[in-house]
C-alpha cells in the first residue's frame, strides 16, 4: 500500500517548512491594563500579561528589589491593542541603573575607581581610573571610562591624570580607565535576548598632601522596556519612553593644590523594543530616548571621565510601514524606516539598518500558514499521482 508512505513523506515535508514567527503574548491573566497615572497593582512585577494596554499617565515602575545585575526588566505581553500616551521612565539615576540596566562604579577616597556593571562575560563595562597618593600635594586621580552597548558611540578610555607632583605614586601619570571593547544586543534578536546599558567606571581618588579625595562615581546604565502585542500599537503624542543612562559624576577640584580627583565615566543607554504583527503608528511628537551619559569632568592634572554609549530603539510591525516613526529622535542615535524583512526561519534580507534604532517588518503568520498549507496540498497531490503511476506500472508487469 502506498498511503502510509505518502502520509509519512507529507509529514516530513510539513515539519521542514518554515514555521510562523510567533510573539509570546502571554495568557492575559492581568486583564485589561489601564494605567492612568497610578502605580500598577505591584511594582515588583517584572512580567505583565495583559489583555490590552492603555497608558495615559505616569505609572511608577519602581524596581523595589533595586536590581543591580540587569537580570530583570519591564516585560509587557499584550494579547490585543496597545496605546501608549503617558510616561514609562526606566532611566538611571546616579550609579543606580534603570530597570534592567547595570550599575555605575563607585568612587572611594584612597582607592582606584570601581568598574561599572555589564552583562556577564562581556567586556562592556566602564573601567575605573587609577588613584594617586603619597606626595606632599598635586596627586590627582584619573578618569573612568564610559559603559558600552550598541557601539554607535563607543566609549574611549578615561583621561590620564598628570603630570603629577613630586613623590606621587604612580608617577608621572595615573592611567585612565581602559575603554570597553565589546558591543552587545543584536537588534534582530531582541525577542529572545535583550540587555540594558552597561555602567560607567568611577574616577580615581586624589591626594592633596593631607587628605584622600574621592573620585567621581560612574553613571548607571539605562533600563529595558519590551512590549509584544497581538493587536495594534499606537505611540501617541504624550508618550514619554526613556531608558537613558546617567552622567558620570564630576571629580572633586582641590583649590589649594593639584590634588583633583578623576571624573566618572557615563553609563550606556538601554533598550526600547516594541513589536507587533499588526500595525504600529506614531502620532504627534512623542519622546523616545535611549541616550548615553556624559563623562564627569575635573581640572587638570586630574582626568575627565569618558562618555558612555547610546542604546537601542527597535520598532517592529507587520508591514514595516510605521507612520510617524521618522520623527522619533534620540540624541546620538538615528531612526531608520528601511525595513529588514524577516522570514519565519529568521533569515534576514540585507538592510542598511544600524544597531541604534531600527524598524523590522515581520511577515504575518497568516500568510506563511496559507503558503505552507498550499505547499503541503501540492506535495500531497504529487505523491498521490506518483503512487498511482507506480501502481499502474506494477500491474502491467
Q: Which percent range describes the beta-strand content?
A: 15-25%
As for the number of domains, it is 2
Order of helices and strands: HEEEEEEEEEEEEEEEEEH
What's the overall geometry? elongated
Helix coverage percent: 10-25%
- Which regions are unreliable across 5 or more consecutive residues at pLDDT < 50? 4-21, 63-70, 331-355, 359-371
Question: Taking all residues together, what is the mean pLDDT?
Answer: 79
Q: What's the gyration radius in Å?
A: 27 Å
By DSSP, the count of extended strands is 17
What is the first-to-last residue Cα distance? 17 Å
How many DSSP H or I helices? 2
Question: Main attributes?
Answer:
elongated, seven-stranded parallel β-sheet, five-stranded parallel β-sheet, 2 helices, alpha/beta, 397 residues
What this model shows, in words?
This protein has 397 residues and is α/β, with parallel strands linked by helices. The chain folds into 2 domains: 1-21 and 372-397; 64-75 and 88-228 and 240-276 and 284-362, no CATH class. Helix content is 12%, strand content 17%. The protein has 2 helices and 17 strands. A 7-stranded parallel beta sheet has the order 2-4-9-12-15-17-16, with no helix packed on it. A 5-stranded parallel beta sheet has the order 1-3-5-10-13, with no helix packed on it. β7 and β8 form a beta hairpin.
